[in-house]
């Protein structure tokens, strides 16, 4: 009679240990590289991505695009798709619906947070999330004052506010900061301006709710050592350095290993990054970052095979040449534990 009791106690101990470990969830970000529909949107410069436009953007190419992006997304998180996925360079809810329908056929169902922004080209930020992990979800788009950008209109900062099933509150920000098209130094003031706006929003949020977990993700169009990230957002390279007013940037460690999400002139670096507040890093909270879990998702089939560009992300277009690829960026991801 003793043996069954011993087995039962062992099982109870295992179950308790597993419960203490908590549930692991995957947070990811992926620049979609021009996920446009084929319809002309009034007051937006989307002419290039129309059937008679520069890229001859037909229904066939659009369908290929959503299938290709869906293939990458579905392969992430051990074939289950990320639990939360921030995206940029999506034109609208029509384009996103094509992607979510593709994922639904792969048995991966998502809710969506998206707002139409004032971006001149019509590319926006969005976030997909698995509804079964969430008790309550809300969103808000913070528009950027054009006066700080030399009169330009740009996509706003997308805020996604969640109460998770374990009652933890986490706020995720999805960003796509102004590009370097005019030159890195010439356009730097724009990214610093947007960084200051994000910082202001985060500081206000933490003042109202000191226990809130914050994770900011996006294509910042700046690297981990640029002023906007390192100084304005106080992005720290190690958890030990990250104080209550700072943000931990796990991409610094990956960069030291020679990794990156974006390749420019033959060198990898990170335009796509995560920034986490201290509440995701300390003990005694309901949600924590899994240390050293941040990574780049990269499979051989996502990369160029031609000698000149071998190893680069296989994108949708190379110049004007249609490549029927994925994106010029690789997705990045990390894991959190819900306790």
Describe the structure in your own words.
The model is unreliable at 11-20 (pLDDT under 50). Helix 2 (59-79) packs across helix 3. Strands 1, 2, 3, 4, 14, 15 and 18 form a seven-stranded mixed β-sheet that branches. Strands 5-6-7-8-13 form a five-stranded mixed β-sheet, with no helix packed on it. Strands 9-10 form a two-stranded parallel ribbon. It is α+β, with helices and mostly antiparallel strands and 339 residues long. It has helices at 2-21, 59-79, 93-105, 184-208, 227-232, 251-256; strands spanning 23-35, 84-90, 111-114, 124-129, 134-142, 157-164, 169-176, 213-219, 235-236, 247-248, 262-264, 267-269, 272-276, 287-289, 295-296, 317-318, 321-322, 332-338. The chain is built from six helices and 18 strands. The chain has a single domain, classed as Endonuclease/exonuclease/phosphatase (Deoxyribonuclease I, Chain A).
List the helices and strands and how they pair.
Blueprint (H helix, E strand, L loop, with lengths): L1 H20 L1 E13 L23 H21 L4 E7 L2 H13 L5 E4 L9 E6 L4 E9 L14 E8 L4 E8 L7 H25 L4 E7 L7 H6 L2 E2 L10 E2 L2 H6 L5 E3 L2 E3 L2 E5 L10 E3 L5 E2 L20 E2 L2 E2 L9 E7 L1
Parallel strand pairs: 1-2, 7-8, 9-10
Antiparallel strand pairs: 1-18, 2-4, 3-4, 5-6, 6-7, 8-13, 11-12, 14-18, 15-18, 16-17
Helix pairs in contact: 2-3
Pick out its properties.
339 residues; Deoxyribonuclease I, Chain A; 5-stranded mixed sheet; 27% helix; globular
Globally, the shape reads globular
Helix proportion of residues, in percent? 25-40%
CATH architecture, please? Answer: 4-Layer Sandwich
Q: Please give the radius of gyration in angstroms.
A: 21 Å
Percent of sequence in beta strands: 25-35%
Measured distance between first and last alpha carbons: 35 Å
**Mean pLDDT rating:** 93
Biggest pleated-sheet summary: 7 strands, mixed
CATH topology: Deoxyribonuclease I, Chain A
Structural class: alpha+beta
What do we call the CATH homologous superfamily?
A: Endonuclease/exonuclease/phosphatase
**Which series of helices and strands comes N to C?**
HEHEHEEEEEHEHEEHEEEEEEEE
**Counting H and I runs of at least 4 residues, what is the number of helices?**
6
Q: Quickly name the level 1 CATH class.
A: Alpha Beta
Count structural domains: 1
Number of strands: 18
Chain oligomer state:
single chain
- The parts where pLDDT drops under 50 for at least 5 residues are 11-20
């Amino acid at each position: 009679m003793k043996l069954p009791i011993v087995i039962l106690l062992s099982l109870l101990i295992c179950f308790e240990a597993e419960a203490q470990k908590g549930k692991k969830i995957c947070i990811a970000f992926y620049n979609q590289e021009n996920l446009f529909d084929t319809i002309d949107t009034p007051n937006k410069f989307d002419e290039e991505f129309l059937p008679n436009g520069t890229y001859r953007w037909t229904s066939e190419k659009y369908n290929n695009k959503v299938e290709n992006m869906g293939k990458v997304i579905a392969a992430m998180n051990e074939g289950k798709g990320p639990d939360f996925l921030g995206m940029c360079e999506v034109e609208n809810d029509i384009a996103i619906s094509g992607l979510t329908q593709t994922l639904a056929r792969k048995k991966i169902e998502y809710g969506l947070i998206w707002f139409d922004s004032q971006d001149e080209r019509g590319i926006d930020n969005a976030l997909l999330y698995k509804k079964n992990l969430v008790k309550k979800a809300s969103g808000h788009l913070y528009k950027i004052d054009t006066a700080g950008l030399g009169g330009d209109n740009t996509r706003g900062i997308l805020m996604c506010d969640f109460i998770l099933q374990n009652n933890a509150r986490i706020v995720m920000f999805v960003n796509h900061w102004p590009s370097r098209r005019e030159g890195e130094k010439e356009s730097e003031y724009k990214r610093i301006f947007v960084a200051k706006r994000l910082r202001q929003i985060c500081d206000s949020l933490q003042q109202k709710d000191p226990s809130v977990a914050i994770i900011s993700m996006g294509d910042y169009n700046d690297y981990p050592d640029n002023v906007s990230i390192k100084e304005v957002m106080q992005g720290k390279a190690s958890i030990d350095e990250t104080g209550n007013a700072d943000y931990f940037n796990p991409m610094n460690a990956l960069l030291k290993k020679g990794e990156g999400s974006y390749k420019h002139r033959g060198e990898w670096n990170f335009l796509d990054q995560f920034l986490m507040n201290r509440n995701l890093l300390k003990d005694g909270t309901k949600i924590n970052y899994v240390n050293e879990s941040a990574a780049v998702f990269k499979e051989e089939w996502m990369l160029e095979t031609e000698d000149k560009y071998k190893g680069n992300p296989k994108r949708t277009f190379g110049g004007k040449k249609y490549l029927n690829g994925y994106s010029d960026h690789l997705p990045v991801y990390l894991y959190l534990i819900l306790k």
